[in-house]
Amino acid sequence: MTEPADRDLDLFEPRETDVFAGFEGDIPGEPGRIETWIRAYGPAAVAFVVVLVLWEALTRAFDVETFLLPKPSEIAQRFVVNFDVIWAAGFRTFFEALGGFVVGGVLAVVMALATVRWSAVREGLLPFAIAANTMPIIALAPIANNWFNVTSPVSKMAVVAVIVFFPVMINTARGLLEVQPEELELLRAAAATPRQILRLVRIPSALPFFFSSLKVASALSIIGAIVAEYFGGPQDVLGQYILNRANLFQFPDAWAAIVVASIIGITFYMVIVVAERLAMPWHVSLRETDTA
Amino acid sequence: MSDAVVLARGVGKVFGAGAARVEALTGIDLRIDQGEFISLIGPSGCGKSTLLRLIGDLLQPSTGELIVNGKEPRQARLDRDYGIVFQQATLLDWRTVRANVELPLEIMGVPKDERQARATEMLSLVQLEEFADHHPWQLSGGMQQRVAIARALSFRPALLLMDEPFGALDEMTRELMQQEVLRIWTETETTVVFVTHSIPEAVFLSTRVVVMSPRPGRISQVVDVPLPHPRNVDTRESDDYYRLITEVREALRRGEER
């Protein structure tokens, strides 16, 4: 099986799991849980702090203008002052992103299943889906605002749904279709029905592809919602907040909103990582031992 | 005739058409009786795996007549008359060892209690009871292949098809596995068709060795192996064993030269 194509997005996944717990081949002197966590997350935490300190120090040392690049301390201050407003906007934006994510994801899975069932869908539509996946779908945002009423969150959800649909559908279809030939022979030898083949082999084989695409789609959904908001609509959402504060030269406010967008995006991603672990604890990527 | 588990008359298989046409098998006449252990041996391209897949109805013959367990191969497959083991164990990673063994039974709709009982029985046959709740990737290659054998035998088929099952194992494990398979063959009285490219393996295991040659794939000779059972380490050191290995080797060479 080919590796799902989101390796660069796996930054937030710890390398350690305890799937080997209780296995007889347990490595002697295996580090404890806390040590494991430090080893897994420590370097990233240190890098994060170093970047913040450098940022603060350099902006102070060179007296960088706030409208070019605010100091982290300024951003933090605005984050605290505007906490309620920014988070309220953040949740509205997240609601749009989530709505589009669910609609796009469900449609994508239905279409992916259809590619397995009907070769006409596979041969006729899949090439177009792959082509569409390379298009800058966000460019549709003004059109979706026009179609679905710019004041309604549905117009933003529509954009997000389209953005989410293509990667999820293509990857899930690939996972469902690219089953090892010997696994299919095995099931055929046992006289399994197409439905049994789907349930017993195709769907489990597609799960890694499906979750990889969901991880990509979770990030895309937040981006899609915010960019769609730039093209107009209610003012109490992140996209409009960032746009308005930037127009007023209140860049630390805009940066604080970007921090909130990042926190929401990372949290969304982490929820999917957890769901992935629960759904497929058997998967190769989740049973690596530390080789460092 | 009633005892024939596999009966092939003039079986041929052609892949592709036009310039890409390959005659994989031609004029295969073979009768395999109940309780036999038959090895198909030959160089790459002799069609030994193709013949195994024709018997299993994973491929269909282009010419000739093939009867498996007294019926059309397709019907034999639908009736689950055979179990199959591939070169790769082909265990499903998301299932435990036990659940992998139960897979064919689950497909057949066997009730849960019976499935569990049968899986326990089969795992004890291949001596892996204590690994029932492990996942395939926690087992060594040899153990994985034993699980695959347990799975293939879980529904007690009349016929066991094995396609180079030990090809990916090291020599030591391989000899242990050969001993295992002979024990299982004796205990279950299953008929076995075993594809290999190892001459000693074919001789050690088989009651008859079917020697095949390529371009087009055909049977060049059938060598009887009258070595006594049970076979063990002493068998591997006996003069008869060496004599039969030489006989098969010469048959292979004659097939190549023809």
Give the key terms.
heterodimer; A: 292 residues; mainly alpha; 11 helices; disordered N terminus; B: 258 residues; Rossmann fold; 9 helices; globular
Describe the structure.
The complex is a heterodimer of chains A (292) and B (258). Chain A has a single domain (33-286), classed as Orthogonal Bundle (MetI-like fold). Chain A has eleven helices and no strands. Chain A has helices at 33-61, 72-81, 83-117, 119-124, 126-133, 141-147, 153-177, 181-189, 194-230, 238-247, 251-279. By secondary structure, chain A is mainly α. Chain A is 70% helix and 0% strand. Chain B is of the alpha/beta class and 258 residues long. Chain B folds into two domains: 1-81 and 159-165 and 179-258, P-loop containing nucleotide triphosphate hydrolases (Rossmann fold); 82-156, no CATH class. Chain B is 39% helix and 24% strand. In chain B, strand 6, helix 6 (171-188) and strand 7 form a beta-alpha-beta unit. The radius of gyration of chain B is 18 Å and the shape is globular. The two termini of chain B are 32 Å apart. The chains are: A mainly alpha (292), B alpha/beta (258). The A-B interface holds A 20, 23, 25, 180, 182-183, 185-192, 196, 200-201, 204, 207, 280, 282-284, 287 and B 53, 56, 58, 77-78, 80, 82-84, 86, 88, 90, 92-94, 103-104, 106-108, 134-135, 137-138.
